[in-house]
Specification:
Structural class: alpha/beta
Number of helices: 5
Largest sheet: 5 strands, parallel
Number of strands: 5
Strand content: 5-15%
Radius of gyration: 16 Å
Helix content: 40-55%
Distance between the termini: 22 Å
Oligomer: single chain
Strand order of the largest sheet: 3-2-1-4-5
Order of helices and strands: EHEHEHEHEH
Length: about 180
């Protein structure tokens, strides 16, 4: 399949595992140059595996909840590749699964919101300026069916994914040159 991604630069958060790792591999197979951002140093192993397969891949260790980390990581990607075309916000956590809302600790709630919502906000904040220069600018923020349907014992996750959905909609209104919204 040719998705016309050859030589496009894609930045992917949460690229050390799960959905982020799978997206990185798929985009690399389509010819995209890959920048993986993750707080887990295992992201370097993923980038090395992609390079071993002949793909152009960079790993930048960053915590998506820390603005300085995100700003520095985006600068490193731009320094290495010179531009940015695609951004995938895949970093996410489920938090206290199976815990009724009234029993969720504030610390657990805040951590889920920080990673799933603040992380995607910071990602957009620091990548939209670079995306404006791309004729094929794309931001994809991974939500979930939990954005639309509440699952028992998942109040923090459900709420965070609903916020990701609305953040994406808001970005498409504020920055139509860099973000389009579909669901």
């Amino acid at each position: 399949m040719d998705l016309q991604l050859r030589d496009r630069v894609a930045l992917i958060t949460g690229g050390a595992s799960g959905i982020g790792r799978a997206c990185a591999a798929a985009l690399a197979e389509e010819g995209a140059r890959i920048a993986l951002l993750d707080r887990d140093p295992a992201g370097e192993e993923v980038a090395a595996l992609l390079r071993d397969r002949g793909h152009d891949a960079l790993f930048v260790r960053a915590d998506v909840t820390a603005e300085a980390d995100v700003r520095t990581a985006v600068a490193a990607v731009l320094d290495r590749f010179g531009r940015l075309d695609t951004v995938l916000g895949c970093a996410g956590i489920s938090g206290p699964a199976g815990t009724p809302a009234a029993e969720v600790s504030v610390a657990d709630w805040d951590q889920v919101m920080a990673v799933n919502v603040r992380g995607n906000f910071l990602l957009a904040k620091h990548t939209v300026p670079a995306l404006r220069s791309s004729p094929v600018a794309t931001i994809v923020l991974i939500a979930s069916d939990a954005a639309l349907v509440a699952f028992e014992g998942m109040s923090a996750y459900n709420t965070s994914k609903g916020a990701v959905l609305m953040l994406t909609r808001s970005l498409s209104v504020d920055h139509p040159e860099a973000v389009s919204y579909t669901h």
